[in-house]
Amino acid sequence: MFYWRWLHHLLNPHCQQCQDEAIETKVCTSCETLKMQLAIVNSEKSQMLNSILSFTKPAENQSSSPIDYEKVKPKMMTWNVRRQMLEAEDRKSAQILAEQKRKESIEKLEQETGIDEGVKSNA
């Protein structure tokens, strides 16, 4: 077969059939470039469509239980941060103790003066 083509081309180098075959087999670079660009755009469109459709689907991997933030907190922290946290906790506990003492002292004074019994009997 190859021998026949070679012989034909040697004897009739510019026949119409050979010219048609040459035109058909010639690769157009601009066409190839356009085909590649079209393939890229089509793949980008499909990725974009998939990402948009993924927003409408319900999240399957989300658990219904709330997140435990204590587990997520970083384990290592600087001494300054730790000191500030401890001082804030101490201030809070001191404030709670002061409020309790104030309430106890007010209740004690009310009991001593008898105001507490009068308020309860009027109500």
Mean pLDDT: 81
Q: What amount of the residues lies in strands?
A: under 5%
First-residue to last-residue Cα separation: 118 Å
Shape by Cα distribution? rod-shaped
Helical segment tally?
A: 6
What does this molecule look like?
The structure is a single chain. The chain is an all-alpha fold and 123 residues long. It folds into two domains: 1-55, no CATH class; 77-123. Helices cover 77% and strands 0% of the residues. It is built from six helices and no strands. The protein has helices spanning 2-11, 16-25, 29-56, 69-72, 79-113, 115-122. The radius of gyration is 44 Å and the shape is rod-shaped. The N and C termini lie far apart (118 Å). The mean pLDDT is 81.
Entry summary:
The chain has 123 residues and is mainly α.
Main traits of this protein?
mainly alpha, 77% helix, 6 helices, 2 domains, 123 residues
Layout of helices and strands:
Layout: H1 2-11, H2 16-25, H3 29-56, H4 69-72, H5 79-113, H6 115-122
